[in-house]
Amino acid sequence: MQGRLRCSLSQTLTPVFFFFFIIFLWSCFFFGPSTAAFNLTTLSFDEGYSPLFGDANLVRSPDGRSVRLLLDVYTGSGFISSSMHQYGFFSAKIKLPSDYTAGVVVAFYTSNGDVFEKTHDELDFEFLGNIEGKPWRFQTNLYGNGSTNRGREERYNLWFDPSKGFHRYSILWTSKNIIFYVDEVPIREVVANAEMGGDYPSKPMSLYATIWDASNWATSGGRYKVDYKYAPFTSEFNDLVLDGCPMDPIQSFPNTTTACSDRDAWLRSRDYAVITPKQRAAMRKFRQHYMYYSYCYDTLRYPVTPPECVVDATEKMRFQDSGRLKFGGSHRKSRAHRKRRSRGTGASMSNEHQTDM
User: Fold this and answer.
1) What percentage of the chain reaches a pLDDT higher than 70?
2) Max Cα separation, the chain?
């Protein structure tokens, strides 16, 4: 999407593409009217980011406005924001690897696990690769104050092929709410409330982007591994956005919230902080048609519904007690896998990963 899905054809499609054409038209109908482009200021890589690991596999464009992250048999790669931020809008246009990508994970997320190891906060987009001919899936998650035993995963399909072109993925984090966006379509909102307590992210975080080998869990619970004959696997990032309140968490903590109150108010006044009625309708349709797991409906895991969940009675009817769809989607049970590596050795921060499929 470039602000609005382009609902036009330049040629007659063959029967081979008829199914995808129908999906395209259906997507235009559901998401086209709600996707006016946000007013964003983009940065060059050097203005806001630094290499994290796998420096030889991080390739910047000549103008510094885009970057490629590669995974090969030797290493993955990643970058990190140069500053930590208290609240912010973190965004990039991303193109994922194509063809056989089983075992590959591309992550775009915020975390402070290096600074607050036992009480870290985190907000995640994780894109999970697949065997050739099967689509990428992705999940969102959040942790606050080290609440990794209370994962808040949701898992989804997409209405487009993310390896064919760039799409914008964004995380808004304010003192009042968190919104995950795909292009300009909000797909998930978490509203802060007193019952969440410390589970709502509250400390300064850095922005990370990584690509790495997660063969042990990412595709069919580890059944399909990364096949390096298809390497290098390349994810591309451009139109980088980093709107937040930069600060030193050690010097400022625990007064980070007060210090960034003006910036927080500014963020909450922006167009991406307000979900319009059309966007709300688009979010509802996305969740009806593309979400295949939600912890809010996983009563086996959470007999008492977590306080931030807004349960939609109609939506709930589609899910089993395991939080998975009754029909279609992914039904296999999954086990959480934690993978922790230090920033110096080159990997993403502490994440609780759920097997997909």
Assistant:
1) 79
2) 62
Query: Which tens digit of pLDDT belongs to each residue from 195-204?
Result: 999 899 999 9
Q: What φ, ψ does residue 48 adopt, rounded to 5°?
A: -140, -5
Parallel, antiparallel or unpaired: strands 206-213 and 104-111:
antiparallel
Written as six digits, the tokens of 298 are 């996983």
- Token match 């081979």: residue? 16
* Inter-residue contact 205 to 90 (CB < 8 Å): no
Query: pLDDT tens-digit profile of 135-189?
Result: 999 999 999 998 887 889 999 999 999 999 999 999 999 999 999 999 999 999 9
CA distance 167 to 256: 32
Give the separation between CA 50 and CA 48, rounded to whole angstroms.
7
Tell me the pTM.
Answer: 0.84
Measured CA angle at 356 (ends 87, 78), to 5 deg: 45
SS3 track for 248-298:
CHHHHCCCHHHHCHHHHHHHHCCHHHCCCHHHHHHHHHHHHHHEEEEEEEE
- Element (H or E) spanning 315, and its range? helix 313-316
Which residues are catalytically annotated? 122, 126
d(CA 91, CA 207): 9
Residue the block writes with tokens 């210090």 = 259
Element holding 72 (H helix, E strand): none
Bridge partners of residue 190, in order along the sequence = 178
Q: Which runs of consecutive H residues, i.e. helices, occur in 32-86?
A: 45-48
